[in-house]
Amino acid sequence: MLKSLFKKKEEKIYAPINGKIVKLEDVPDPVFSQKMMGEGMAIQPEEGKVLSPVDGKIVQLMDSKHAIGIEDNHGNEILIHIGLETVELKGEGFQPHIQVGDTVSVGQLLMEFDVAHIEANAKSSVTPIVITNSGTSGKSFTFTSEQQATAGETVIIEAK
């Protein structure tokens, strides 16, 4: 019984987007596929809504609105990078519903984006979800074997 009291609770990171789950190694960008930014997964979006994958705080919203940084309540720093080479869109096609400093909950709408616009004007709409402090956190991460993600419901990463 005492062991169960002190056992670390698994930290769950949910899919922020509905779509096909992609291994980070298969993302067509070496910054992500070689895990230069950290461990993670990616999703090929089926619709243009980003929901919060965790309970936490918004710590970054890029001026170009293509990326959101969240620190969850367990200290994991999560980057949601909508599409590849989307910084060049200069915010066009992105509608944020949050700002830096906001407290968010799993399933809360963070951003809407135009998938067709991104696919027509950027390298790809594939969206990496990366734990940017995975290399220094001392945690181990397990990744889902699921093929399809439902935003706010499918656990894609667990940390221990």
Automatic annotation (TrEMBL):
UniProt xrefs under SUPFAM superfamilies: Duplicated hybrid motif
Keywords, ordered alphabetically: Kinase, Phosphotransferase system, Sugar transport, Transferase, Transport
Matching Gene3D superfamilies: Glucose Permease (Domain IIA)
Protein origin, superkingdom: Bacteria
Record localization: Cytoplasm
The PTS EIIA type-1 domain, residue ranges: 29-133
Keyword Thylakoid: no
Signal peptide boundaries: none
UniProt cross-references to InterPro entries, sorted A to Z: Dup_hybrid_motif, PTS_EIIA_1_perm, PTS_EIIA_component
Membrane-crossing segments per the record: none
Identification of the protein by name: PTS glucose transporter subunit IIA
Native organism: Ornithinibacillus xuwenensis
